[in-house]
Design brief:
- It holds the Pfam family Molybdop_Fe4S4.
- The structure is a single chain.
- Helix 7 packs parallel to helix 13.
- The strands form 7 sheets. The protein has a 7-stranded mixed beta sheet, covered by helices on one side.
- The protein is of the alpha/beta class.
- It contains 23 helices and 28 strands.
Length: 769
């Protein structure tokens, strides 16, 4: 229910998976404008917000906000139409394609920012109405490797199987591939205990804002200057793509020096002997020759972590990984090596210690649990499991035989668009593929080759500008629902203002399309988020991600009583055991694995892995490593944050960080224009000299489109287990751009006046109404 004018409701930030608690106050009836945002005391942010959170309400009133459906006319321009016209067109084209080419001719691409309810409904719609296996989502670009590694080792994937606040009490934290100080600033406070104890270890080829928290002045070579003072922690700066070798070296030292928790390994794991044999080959000096991290530093870090481990009477250790090491063709292996190290030290399943993966997108956790992923059904069930199919089909009121089998991961799905036998239509929800997908130029060509591209969005993103039909949808402060934070904490999102114009929720859109496509009567698509959640809860019952004991009403009651949300799994109380308000309700599971892991025998699986290196390594013609990442002021493809004037002023254009030695060698001055060329394409941006990056490496953020879109040069090679693309490292050549004209920010954020302009030459389609 929409808040009354002048009232305040509790909700959460629309950006990352930290899901910072905030309060939203609806303007009085006589006052125009966006709701007022204030931080509130919530366990993840403890009253803090980053710049994106403080300015989040500004996007609600973006000047180019989509407020009516748009359809591309014969002239090639997008123009406004009614909802009936737009939806009738989409339904008729989808039905015709399926009739002529089969259900597999239609594909769906979802997003990690959708609420649990919308993610669930999208998966259900895809498999019951469209009956296509072709669905995946941009979470494949986020948590796929961590999910694969955790499922293999622990039997279940929950990014952090403990509350984030637990990390604050640890004596040591090993953080690999995550720049929390810029991507999730309020989370930095949870590193305070490790920093105070001198136990924060950051592994990153850049001296990022997070690496600087260690106080470690070590150089890119990994060697500490002789004059260095004792630091608050350690920064290891390996050669890009060699984090796995560093982890293998750390475990080698732990085992060689007798620092492992042998009793824990004996009682709670399997596979240790194979892992021990495999890491015997990774002595510190060999790791140094591969990674550039000094052997002495490896030994120092291994001893530091062991001293803080429970087996040695320490104050606790957490091993945390992020996209920097997971977005790799050996991402699952790197996660597995991180887990092996944590298991050797006896950390997972102990209060105050553990392994976890830091989810990036707002609902990256919940978004993959309930049906957007190519091989999953609600509750994190496998779609090829007959029992899972039978259970979910019964909830949906369909024959399990009618459900399609597994689809293919995102990169493979995108490559297949418009190819012979591949999908000819694509529905996009909550993703800006033109900017965020790897090898983006190839993705753009595949999108252009489609017979039908339908995009649901709230602003004219670069992907929406390619679409044949654009459907305007609601934003976070305009809708009810739930999200699941990086800890597996299920929380409520609340509406405080009405959506503008004719914007509608995806729940309504999917219900209308289902009706037009002739969904049978038992197959219901409710539009009330609370009702959708109740169905989601039933569908998830008994699965690894069991929400069956939850409802909007219970979450509201928990928050009203001062509760911080509930952590899945939350199974329903046995039938007849208690009334809904009784204490017999399951309290949720803040900490997993305390007694057993989610494997058949209750033991964690240690799996031997080996370092291979990046798929696109440096070579003549491409002698420099490119790494990519985020900046504090922008988020993902920038579709939201580029529309916030305050954030855009702070970082208005893309840039390339390079070491002064490299800049001098190639003749690119600080502030000059530099061109990056890979085997896939080239980009241009402003050069920024800094000694915070290795001399053999450049860094470029990925929040821009056009000539500064770094994903035009990244590789779409994928991890063979997770399907995760190798965003984070590739080989490039650098050259100066002589007499380059200035690139204005407006060129990367098209407005409504440009909606009629097709990006590139695409054949005219007869979609006129």
């Amino acid at each position: 229910m929409l808040a009354s004018p002048g009232t305040t409701v509790d909700s959460h930030c629309p950006y990352c998976a930290l899901q910072c608690g905030m309060s939203l106050t609806r303007p009085r009836a006589d006052v125009a404008g966006a709701p007022e945002v204030q931080p509130r005391d919530f366990p993840t942010n403890r009253g803090g917000l980053c710049q994106k959170g403080w300015t989040s309400a500004a996007v609600l009133g973006a000047s180019d906000r989509l407020v009516t459906p748009l359809v591309r006319a014969e002239s090639g321009e997008l123009g406004p139409v009614s909802w009936d016209v737009a939806l009738d067109l989409v339904a008729s084209r989808l039905a015709a394609l399926a009739a002529e080419h089969g259900p597999g001719s239609v594909a769906v691409f979802g997003g990690g920012g959708l609420t649990n309810e919308k993610a669930y409904a999208l998966g259900k719609f895809t498999r019951t109405v469209l009956r296509t296996p072709n669905i995946d989502y941009n979470g494949r670009f986020c948590m796929a490797s961590a999910a694969a590694g955790m499922n293999r080792s622990f039997g279940v994937d929950r990014g952090l199987p403990f509350p984030l606040s637990d990390v604050g009490g640890a004596q040591a934290v090993l953080l690999l591939g995550s720049n929390l100080a810029e991507t999730m600033p309020p989370a930095v406070q949870h590193l305070a205990g490790a920093r105070a104890a001198g136990g924060l270890v950051v592994v990153d080829p850049r001296r990022s804002a997070t690496a600087r928290l260690t106080g470690d002045p070590s150089t890119g070579s990994g060697q500490r200057p002789a004059s260095a003072q004792p630091a608050e922690g350690v920064h290891l700066a390996p050669v890009p793509g060699t984090d796995l070798a560093v982890l293998l070296g750390l475990l080698h030292v732990v085992l060689a020096e007798g620092l492992a928790d042998r009793e824990y390994l004996e009682e709670r794991t399997t596979g240790f002997d194979d892992v021990a044999r495999s890491v015997a080959a990774w002595w510190p000096e060999r790791v140094e020759s591969v990674s550039g991290v000094a052997a002495g530093e490896l030994r120092r870090v291994a001893r530091l972590l062991a001293a803080a481990a429970p087996v040695h009477g320490g104050g606790g250790v957490y091993v945390l990984t992020g996209r920097g090491v997971e977005q790799s063709t050996q991402g699952t292996a790197t996660v597995t090596a991180s887990i092996n190290l944590a298991l050797a030290l006896g950390l997972p399943g102990r209060i105050g210690s553990g392994y976890g993966a830091i989810t990036g997108q707002g609902n990256g956790q919940g978004g993959r649990e309930h049906g957007q992923k190519a091989d999953q059904l609600p509750g994190y069930r496998k779609i090829d499991d007959p029992a899972a199919r039978e259970h979910v089909a019964a909830v949906w009121g369909v024959d399990p035989e009618t459900l399609p089998g597994p689809g293919v991961p995102a990169v493979q799905l995108l490559r297949s668009l418009g190819t012979p036998g591949g999908p000819r239509a694509l529905l996009v929800h909550g993703s800006n593929l033109v900017v965020s997908a790897p090898n983006a130029s190839s993705v753009i060509e595949r999108l252009k080759s489609l017979d039908l591209l339908v995009v649901c969005d709230f602003v004219p993103s670069e992907t929406a500008l390619l679409a044949d039909v654009v459907l305007p949808v609601t934003q976070w402060a305009e809708e009810e629902g739930t999200m699941t934070s990086l800890e597996g904490r299920v929380i409520r999102r609340r509406a405080v203002v009405a959506p503008p114009g004719e914007a509608r929720s995806e729940l309504w859109i999917l219900a209308e399309l289902a009706r037009r496509l002739g969904a049978p009567e038992p197959l219901a698509f409710p539009t009330d988020p609370a009702v959708v959640f109740d169905e989601l809860a039933r569908a998830s019952a008994g699965g690894p991600a069991d929400y069956s004991g939850l409802s909007h009403a219970r979450l509201d009651a928990d928050e009203a009583s001062g509760g911080p949300g509930l952590f899945w799994p939350v199974p329903a109380a046995p039938s007849g055991a208690a009334d809904p308000g009784a204490s017999a309700q399951h309290p949720g599971t803040p900490r997993m694995f305390l007694d057993r892991f989610a494997t058949p025998d209750g033991r964690a699986r240690m799996v031997a892995v080996d370092h291979v290196g990046p798929s696109d390594d440096v070579r003549p013609g491409a002698p420099i490593y490119l790494v990519t990442g985020r900046v504090l002021q922008h988020y993902q493809s920038g579709a939201q944050t580029h529309r916030v004037a305050e954030l855009e002023r702070l970082v208005a254009e893309p840039y390339v960080e390079l070491h002064p030695v490299l800049g001098s060698r190639i003749g690119v001055p600080d502030g000059g224009r530099v061109r990056l060329t890979s085997a896939r394409g080239r980009v241009e941006a402003t050069a920024r000299w800094t000694d915070a990056v290795r001399p053999d490496t450049v860094f470029m953020p990925f929040h821009w489109s056009g000539t500064g879109s770094v994903n035009q040069v990244t590789t779409d090679a994928t991890d063979p287990i997770s399907g995760m693309p190798e965003f984070k490292v590739c080989a490039v050549d650098l050259t100066p751009v002589p007499d380059a004209p200035e690139v204005r920010p407006a060129e990367t954020t098209p407005g409504l006046d440009q909606l009629g302009q097709r990006h590139g030459a695409r054949r005219t389609k007869e979609l006129s109404t």
